User: Fold these one by one.
Assistant:
Number 1:
Amino acid sequence: MARAWGARLIEFQSVTKAFDDGTVAVNDLDLTVEAGTITVFVGPSGCGKTTSLRMVNRMVEPTSGRVLVDGRDVRSADPASLRRGIGYVIQHAGLFPHRTVLDNVATVPLLAGWTRRRARSRAAELLEVVGLPEEVGRRYPAQLSGGQQQRVGVARALAADPPVLLMDEPFSAVDPVVREGLQDELLRLQSELDKTVLFVTHDIDEAVRVGERVAVFATGGVLAQYSEPPELLARPANDFVADFVGRDRGYRGLSFVAGAALRPDEVETVTVGAPGVVSGDEWLLALDEDRRPRGWLRPRATVAGPLSEQELEPGGSLHTLGLPLRGALDAALSSPSGRGVVVDRDGRAVGVVTAHQVLELLSTERAAADSEPEGGR
């Protein structure tokens, strides 16, 4: 009896893919994707990242070398059976337009021999898991937004509970706000499901946000660097990686610097709806009755009647206390007052912080890290 494919690592062993016209898409790739992690392949167009991913489920065959899943060469498996055991999510979701959402999600379980009732029950469960209401299951793909379609695509890939999930630029076709929400959803799902995820993107910000390890590919299908995001941002392996990661990699690196030591300053506040407000020489932070930030009142402003939100300047982004310092710096830089608003987990204001404070704290923490003995790291 054939052994089931399990949640194990994916290995590329000296894998090369060359096409008939002589183009080398992947050049001698040696790489291990650890079980239960999200690994991201990132790089410019034509660098071989999607080709590498598609060799895992045999949609592309290597010219030489081996691709192993759970220690087994994928070429030893029937392609159809292999693909039913590996989830696959693509750009634009790739849903069947003539099937309802519920039947789209139930596709792979039905192919695997599940009863229709069991497959549809599993599909309904997964719609809830990916954050879609029950009634969406009765709709057709054309009736959904782009973000909803991508969530359905993820649900369909998870339907038969595969140990491996391949995601080929799954969120690139949606707007930035929806995209960030989908990234958060992926991270939440991974914390619960513990899949081995191989994720392809051309966006370095997305790569370092969702990836536990990131593989940067250079043109010609060469692996330029493979490391954890903080290491990638702090120590690019060569000029190509440094250029690809970008000159603002230090700012991106703040995403991995804990903000537990940040101590917000107090700020003078005013409540929306308060009558007869005079701001004096300082910006006033306007809060609602639950102490949630609503904006800033400019210096030397006089409001005779109740203070309304129309009289406020938008407040920029908010930083949640305890999260990485990138959010604190962004809050300070985006605030019209030059002071970023810091909130607790419930969104209530606890104080403000300046960019100077964030950079000072970063300098202090880096100095402390550099002074640690080698064994303490």
Note: Residues 17 and 63 are 5 Å apart (CA to CA).
Number 2:
Amino acid sequence: MTASPSAEPPVRVGLIGAGPWARDMHAPMLAAGPETTLTAVWARRPEAAALLAGAHGAAVAGSPEELFDSCEAVAFAVPPAVQAPLAVRAARAGKALLLDKPLGADLASARTVAEAVGTAGVVSQLVLTKRYHPATRAFLAAAAAAEVTGARSCYLHGAFLDGEMATGWRLSEGALLDLGPHLLDLLDASVGPIARLRATGDPRRWVELTCEHENGAVSQASLSGSVRLPRARARVELLGAGEELTWDSAGAGHRESWPLLRSEFAAAVRTGVPSPLDAARGLRLQELIAMGTRD
């Protein structure tokens, strides 16, 4: 009988990045185990890397290559323009990749990541946190049995107005690149593959997407990180001849997604079989985003 992934030694994961997302999500999730252990942290700011590593009993790597030498897999919590070239280096070093979304700052860099993963034959997985929540899995299972005529969705919050996330690429690129992967992934998975996409508005304020799906259904998505709300609002409504199906982020907190995300990544590393949420899926989402940014 084949041993279960939980019977295997924990996967040794190195973390690239020491910002808010690394501090609040990646490091505590990976260090909590039991399927993974956080071995080392590297960041462009050595003092931030030391602080985060010290909080979780990990080493501080002096370079990405030193981090690669200490681990089996690499997790990324850095801006997309930083992630893409480092992910290529990690793949070439034979490391499994736990990738943030989007894969890269643009479609070309996302393609280089996906191609590097394919050439190296390494396991990859996307941190699309909402996909690892049991409520999301139940919603997608119900959607697979439904005939959907149309869908409405939104992902709205005010994090770009102030706070730790109101910096860098999120402010310059806006909601389409940051929030778009989550919502487009859910629509593509629940309604059916998206064939065409049109965008209107300003991604730095509010952008509206109209998606035409291969099965003839039409969906709409509203995205903004610049509206003041008591809490983030993310919702998908599927409508057709049957009963309405809904998914709401109010029942899909990040922490509740950690156990499944961690266990599925560890299983993928140990078996060599990636989940469907891999770099190829990330490239597919980036292709959809590119449709929305064309003139």
Note: The CA atoms of residues 15 and 252 lie 25 Å apart.
Number 3:
Amino acid sequence: MSYVASGGEFDRDTDYITTRITADGRDGYPVEPGRYRLVVARACPWANRTIIVRRLLGLEGVLSIGFCGPTHDEDSWTFDLDPGGVDPVLKIPRLKDAFLKRFPDYEKGITVPAIVDEPTGQVVTNDFAQITLDFSTEWTDHHRDGAPQLYPQELRDEIDEVAQRIYTEVNNGVYRCGFAGSQAAYDKAHDRLFRALDWLSDRLENQRYLVGDTITEADVRLFTTLARFDPVYHGHFKCNRQKLSEMPVLWAYARDLFQTPGFGDTVDFVQIKQHYYIVHTDINPTQIVPKGPDLANWLTAHDREQLGGKPFGDGTPPGSTREGERVPAEHAA
């Protein structure tokens, strides 16, 4: 499978299943504890967002989770981490099975995160951007006591504006570099990415979080790209003006979030590297996974507390990660 854009500039396909799970069930899928399964891959930054938000809001008890392996073939993400290669709840070996169960002629990409209706085995949505917003706004009756306000009403316009720029320029910007099919397209993408990172650095120099004094949806969206920057994007995607660890403000900001319960404890660096270096064979035909970089520095002091703010506002951090959902110690920083 080829990932590099043959025409030069990479253009992401954003045609997702936009069905929503809502409190009033207007799309036919009401919020119901125990009804749905969130399917993710720890390697994927888009899926990693949903793992973080589910944990921060305390939805573990009402929304089950299934983990695909770090690699996939041309056809589908697979449940190769589970016994027999079959998801224990959905009883399927490939995520594609849930898509075809609802849309027999489905021809788009099989992407994570996806939410599957357990009773029918049918996919409900893979619209990653909307999923986490709905966790914050539609699942409120099931939030844990002390859950943070990740998408507060009074800050939504600003969060949306910042998040949109993060998506186009950073989240997708690293892929625009990595999948560029010409020198000109790469040069343009590289400069565009680092202009955005410089903007973020300036924004965060004197404030602890992107919007307001607490963690919001915008921080979650930026964090998953920053966590993958040095292990993957700097080398594999040629985003190499600087490493994250050479950008003082963003590096301190990323470490601050990483050391906050709900963020770093969801990051599996081994699976992240396996995914990119093994799956993208047109970029890395040997499929050799690099040993570096040293990740212990993620746990060093960041000193961002002096900027004020409280990560959870008037709320509290989430408790320990559930058994069966923990990142193996040897895969973490």
Note: The CA atoms of residues 57 and 131 lie 13 Å apart.
